[in-house]
Every structure is written in C-alpha cells, then in structure tokens.
C-alpha cells in the first residue's frame, strides 16, 4: 500500500509539473500575440540557434562515423545547417522576410491545389476542401500584398499560436492526469487499507475431522 501511495504521489507530481509547463507556454503564447514583432525576432533567433546546434551535432556524428558511405553526405548537410544558422542569427529580419515570402507562396500553391482539386473531384468533403483552399489563397494574397511589412507579425503570430495551443494541451493533460491518479487511488484505498488498531479478520478454519450433520442424525 505504501508503495502504491508513493507511486501515486510521484505520478501526481509529474502531472503537476506538466501542467505548470503548459501554463508557462500559454503565458508565452499570449505575450507573443500581444508583441508579435518581438515574437517574430525570438522565433527567428531560436530557429537560427537550432540550425547551428543541429549542424554542429551532425558534423560531430559525421566525423565519428568517417569511413562509411554516408560520411560526405552528413558533412555537407551539417555544413549547410551551420551556414543557415549563422545567416539567420546575424540577420533575423531579412531571414524573417524570406521565410514570410516562402510561407505566402506555400499558402497560395496549397490553396490553389485544394480549390482546383475540390472542383475537379467533387468528393464527399467537397465543401470543406473548397473552404480550406479559398482560405489559403486569401491568406497568401494578404501576406504578399503587405510584404515585407507582414514579416514583422506573420511568423510571430504563428509561433505564438503554436505555443498557446501546445500549452493548453499540456495543461489539460496535466490536470486530467492528476484527476485520474486521485480517482484510482481513492478506488483502491478501501480494498487494500486495513482499519487502524484492528487486525484483519481471518477466515475460520476447522481442525480435526467432523462428520457431516446428516450422518450424525442418521446414527440416532
């Protein structure tokens, strides 16, 4: 019982830390939605450092696995990641403008393919696919018309929304997990816990040989 209690407390504490992390992400997402320019620069710097660190780790792994057929491929990919990370870190504004242009082109092409595909195929999800395509086209056009000024808020908005929804998911998982752990602990407690100061009742057992009651009556 004590072991189960310790495990329940540990699980509840872990879920509590998960909910706390979710709250921090939610706060970061809300702050990012308020200050979208700061969120854009922060996301670009984080992206650049991730590229740089990932490239250094990939280069180290390539050096450790030299002599294999994938050595030069790993070196080239690592070098490209390192170069891209340095460029993004040194010029986050220009990198944000380039990524915003790339995102707008993705919205346009994706929306165009969805609209054309929904009109040609006309499947069971025709209306939903058409709405998605039209929304992608509209979003891409709006971003392109306001470019490069749109690069100050588009990436930051997407980054902040991702933080917000991830944080809400972690909060729901954390509080839901703690509730489940408490319910399981309460359900198992009456079956395993004994009454304080009272020994558990042992089932009675017979000693010796006793004749059945029917045989005793027949003897009389």
From TrEMBL:
Task: Tell me the lineage of the source organism.
Answer: Bacteria, Bacillati, Actinomycetota, Actinomycetes, Kitasatosporales
Q: What is this protein called?
A: HdeD family acid-resistance protein
Going by the entry's taxonomy, the superkingdom of the source organism is recorded as Bacteria
What is an example of a Pfam family matching this protein? Answer: DUF308
Looking at the UniProt entry, the stretches that span the membrane are 15-38, 44-63, 70-89, 101-121, 128-145, 151-175
Naturally occurring in which organism (per UniProt): Streptomyces cremeus
Keywords, A to Z, come to:
Membrane, Transmembrane, Transmembrane helix
Chain positions covered by the region annotation Disordered: 189-220
């Amino acid at each position: 019982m004590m072991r189960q209690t310790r495990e329940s407390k540990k699980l509840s504490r872990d879920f509590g830390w998960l909910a706390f992390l979710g709250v921090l992400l939610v706060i970061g997402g809300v702050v990012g939605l308020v200050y979208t320019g700061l969120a854009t620069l922060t996301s670009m710097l984080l992206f650049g450092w991730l590229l740089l660190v990932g490239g250094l780790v990939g280069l180290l792994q390539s050096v450790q696995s030299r002599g294999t057929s994938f050595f030069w491929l790993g070196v080239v990919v690592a070098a490209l990641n390192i170069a891209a990370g340095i460029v993004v870190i040194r010029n986050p504004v220009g990198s944000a403008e380039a990524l915003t242009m790339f995102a707008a082109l993705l919205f346009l092409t994706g929306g165009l393919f969805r609209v054309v595909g929904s009109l040609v195929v006309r499947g069971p999800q025709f209306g939903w696919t058409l709405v998605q395509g039209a929304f992608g086209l509209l979003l891409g056009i709006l971003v392109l018309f306001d470019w490069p000024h749109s690069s100050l808020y588009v990436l930051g908005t997407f980054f902040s929304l991702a933080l917000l929804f991830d944080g809400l998911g972690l909060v729901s998982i954390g509080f839901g997990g703690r509730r489940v752990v408490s319910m399981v602990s309460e359900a198992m407690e009456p079956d395993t816990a004994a009454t304080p100061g009272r020994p558990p009742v042992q089932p009675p057992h017979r000693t010796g040989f006793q004749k059945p009651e029917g045989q005793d009556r027949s003897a009389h």
